[in-house]
Design brief:
By secondary structure, the protein is of the alpha/beta class. Helices cover 43% and strands 16% of the residues. It contains ten helices and ten strands. Strands 2-3-5-4-7-8-9-10 form an eight-stranded mixed sheet, with helices on both faces. A two-stranded parallel ribbon has the order 1-6. A hairpin with a 5-residue loop joins strand 2 and strand 3.
Length: 305
């Protein structure tokens, strides 16, 4: 039997242990929340930086380009004209990239007879700062580029879209509701962002996977970046009979090739697919060079008026 004094001491210890447990649980929740909020802020931060080259570096014909989006964000880039000004290719870069990284591809397509517009999405390169939204707000950048093209005399059926990674996914999601996007080449687009984040977020956050739900929730509630409905594979169902060329490397470790195959299947008969062995994420142009530019130019030669 325990004495009354021992019983009192034991009760005090139990109460103290409960209080410590509650305090530790509260601190754990606070720590989890803070880490999630900080990580979400880092992962959606702007990617503005000075360009590695200017339009003047591409030749005397290259022109600086800028336009204001619907919400007042100014986009900047480079326009490569031709004398004929008959067909335009708009290049849309991927996440954490910028137009200057695709400048050589733009020049290659320009020498094949196309006007080429390369620009920085919001929050990238030299365009105005904006938090990364993985294609949601970036869709308005696609719309304003199309609006500019029409003002310049390029009707929608004379405008082709070349989207890399997130840029390709953005073009596809906008095209689901915008029939004025009439032909596109998509290189390594993601097809299901929630699934991709579940697989890839730990690689970017460097945190255990149990932080993923907190980071995604914080991105939405704190920074206004919602990702749960960004599923371009579903947008692909609405592509219809418009011509589409899908390029995807079979060794892509960022966007699994399975997402590319499923996207091609959802688009249907109007999709031409190039699934390339030994090619990683958006590496096709780097690996194939002129053959890549020839394939893109040939596609748009056939499908732009």
């Amino acid at each position: 039997m325990t004495s009354p004094e021992e019983h009192v001491v034991r009760q005090r210890v139990v109460r103290w242990a409960k209080r410590v447990g509650v305090a530790l649980a509260f601190l754990a929740v606070i720590a989890y929340t803070c880490i999630s909020v900080i990580s979400a802020g880092v992962l959606t931060r702007t990617n503005n930086r000075p360009p590695s080259l200017t339009p003047a570096d591409l030749g005397t014909d290259a022109r600086p380009w800028s336009v204001m989006a619907e919400d007042g964000i100014t986009l900047r880039g480079c326009y490569l004209p031709t004398e004929e000004r008959r067909r335009l290719i708009v290049i849309v870069h991927g996440m954490r990239s910028s137009w200057d990284r695709l400048a050589q591809l733009g020049r290659d397509l320009n020498t094949r007879g196309f006007d080429v517009l390369m620009f920085d999405l919001r929050g990238h390169g030299s365009s105005d700062p904006h938090r990364l939204t993985m294609g949601r707000a970036e869709r308005s950048d696609v719309r304003v580029a199309l609006m500019w093209a029409k003002i310049e005399g390029f009707s929608p059926e004379r405008v082709g879209w070349l989207g890399h990674s997130m840029g390709g996914s953005t073009v596809l999601m906008e095209a689901a509701e915008n029939m004025e996007i009439t032909a596109a080449v998509l290189d390594s687009p993601f097809g299901n962002l929630p699934e991709l984040l579940d697989q890839q977020l730990t690689l970017h956050s460097h945190l255990p996977k149990f932080f993923n739900p907190g980071i995604i929730l914080a991105a939405h509630l704190v920074y206004g970046v919602r990702t749960d409905d960004l599923v371009p594979i579903e947008s692909a169902r609405k592509w219809g009979k418009r011509p589409l060329l899908l390029i995807h490397g079979e060794e892509d470790t960022i966007v699994p090739i399975e997402q590319g195959r499923l996207m091609a299947d959802r688009v249907g008969e109007s999709c031409e697919a190039l699934f390339l062995p030994d090619v990683r994420h958006t590496e096709a142009y780097e690996r194939l060079g002129d053959r890549y530019a020839d394939a893109v130019a040939s596609f748009f030669d056939r499908h732009l008026k």
